[in-house]
Amino acid sequence: MVLKPKVAIVVGAVTSALIAVVITVVIVVVRNKAANSSSTSAATVTPTPSAATTGTVLDTFPLSAASTVIVNAQQQPVLLHGLNWPAHLDYMIPEGLQFQSLNVIVSNITALGLNSVRLTYATQMVDEFFGDSVDTLPSRTNRTLDGFVPTNILAQIMLANPWISSTTTTMDIFDRAVNSLAQAGLMVILDNHVSRAMVCCEDNDGNGFFGDTYFNITRWIRGLEFIAGRYSNVSQVVAISLRNELRTQITDWQGAWYTNMANAAVVVHNANPNALVIVSGINYASTLAFLQDDPFNVTTTYPALKKKIVYEVHWFSTAYSNSTDWTNDPTACTTVTALENENAGFVLQSSYSYKAPLLLTEFTVNTDLFTSAPSWDHNFFECVMAWTQPNSIGWLQWVISASYYTNVTKDAGLGLLTTDFSGPSNQEYVNALKNYL
Ligand SMILES: *[C@@H]1O[C@H](CO)[C@@H](O)[C@H](O)[C@H]1NC(C)=O
Ligand SMILES: *[C@@H]1O[C@H](CO)[C@@H](O)[C@H](O)[C@H]1NC(C)=O
Ligand SMILES: *[C@@H]1O[C@H](CO)[C@@H](O)[C@H](O)[C@H]1NC(C)=O
Ligand SMILES: *[C@@H]1O[C@H](CO)[C@@H](O)[C@H](O)[C@H]1NC(C)=O
Ligand SMILES: *[C@@H]1O[C@H](CO)[C@@H](O)[C@H](O)[C@H]1NC(C)=O
Ligand SMILES: *[C@@H]1O[C@H](CO)[C@@H](O)[C@H](O)[C@H]1NC(C)=O
Ligand SMILES: CC(=O)N[C@H]1CO[C@H](CO)[C@@H](O)[C@@H]1O
């Protein structure tokens, strides 16, 4: 996640009026093996309403891409509504376990009404599982928490989670987190967030682009294959994303992007043919615009991927200009939405030959400041929802809580849960969210 404003690369024609409403369909929101329905509009998919209220995990999964809509096994549209849960920072442990048990945190996520979680991880976790160090770091094998997590934090983690001991490994905890989320009926996206475990993301942090100091391509591919395969029998693990927020100062980055993303998509698909494969662009996942003229055509060679490729984009309120005035400028939403369509929404256009579903995998709202009255965060939130909902774009908010083991003030204000993960940070915001679930 990066909140710095970014100048987007904009290539190709302006794509303004986006998706024509073709037919009204029932959106199935999968939660706890049941399903809730609400009406919205999407292109091209005809649902089978009879299964909507009786859907079970077995007949719900896997998910697929049907044109520009994500559908379940019954071809019913599925909208992912979720949050990001970081596990990619220095200790490679899902955040919050020093405050609450894993199960309490998971139940607090479901209590928000959300149906999915983007759980992040560092390639370093997999490297250490294989007994390899991250380049330039000391070698570790199956890193246990002992001597790694500071004693005071480890003591708190073990107190709140008696199943964790000092010899538990980071991979053990990740396994348990994935399984707890799945058992709670949440859909899980496993997101390769960084290579070296650390706060993400900066221009020169060594994690930004293929071949950067920590971004070893061989290990990245191995990590994706490992993670995709390891959870391939957990049907709620519905998607594997290839890489978070690629970024580079290299001007000639296209070749590396197309080659590596195509290789990775095939490797992930072979390791878990059921999972959606989530593909991000460049500039901190802010733009896919380069695909307008030069599409990601791996599906030509591997047609099976046609039903699995999903694009992702990140959109923050400061994305296009430091001076966008979400509080007072009544044209802000229209202006910025047009840019969002140029950068990402074009993948949904019926005229685009490589059309595919789109997920907004990160956006932020300052939940502390959010009110039901018009204001910066309220207006931005409504603008995001006005873009995602009618276009069947699923969304996952950054972040579960503004609290990290290594920094309790980072992302201040942005949490959906309180900083001790004990419940919603702002009920007024949860109420606003529920209008869109
Ligand atoms: C790490 O532990 C797993 C079993 O949990 C094992 O399969 C793997 O080989 C171990 N890695 C190393 C390098 O010993
Ligand atoms: C990347 O990792 C592989 C596998 O561990 C290793 O053989 C290779 O030397 C690494 N490449 C670089 C550039 O460090
Ligand atoms: C998935 O397979 C692993 C062993 O590879 C097993 O421990 C786990 O219980 C399985 N999970 C499910 C949901 O079947
Ligand atoms: C796929 O795209 C590449 C450029 O990225 C192009 O060279 C190639 O001809 C395309 N292949 C097909 C089958 O369209
Ligand atoms: C916003 O301001 C920062 C400096 O604070 C600058 O680096 C960045 O380029 C600006 N972004 C835009 C889109 O104007
Ligand atoms: C914690 O995050 C805040 C906000 O990004 C930053 O100002 C501060 O320097 C960070 N502290 C540490 C110890 O990294
Ligand atoms: C719905 C739910 O399980 N909420 C839990 C959130 O966390 C608090 C504090 O630990 C629990 O008391 C709640 O039960």
From TrEMBL:
One GO BP annotation of this record: polysaccharide catabolic process
Which InterPro entries did the record assign?
Answer: GH (IPR017853), Glyco_hydro_5 (IPR001547)
Its family remark reads: Belongs to the glycosyl hydrolase 5 (cellulase A) family.
Boundaries of every Glycoside hydrolase family domain copy = 101-401
Q: Which domain of life is it from?
A: Eukaryota
Report the protein name in the record.
Glycoside hydrolase family 5 domain-containing protein
User: What GO molecular function annotation could you give as one example from this UniProt entry?
Assistant: hydrolase activity, hydrolyzing O-glycosyl compounds
Does the record carry Cell inner membrane as a key word? no
TM annotation in the entry? 7-30
Q: Which Pfam families match?
A: Cellulase
Alphabetized UniProt keyword annotations: Glycosidase, Hydrolase, Membrane, Transmembrane, Transmembrane helix
Native species of this protein? Answer: Physocladia obscura
Hydrolase keyword on record? yes
SUPFAM superfamilies, per the entry? (Trans)glycosidases (SSF51445)
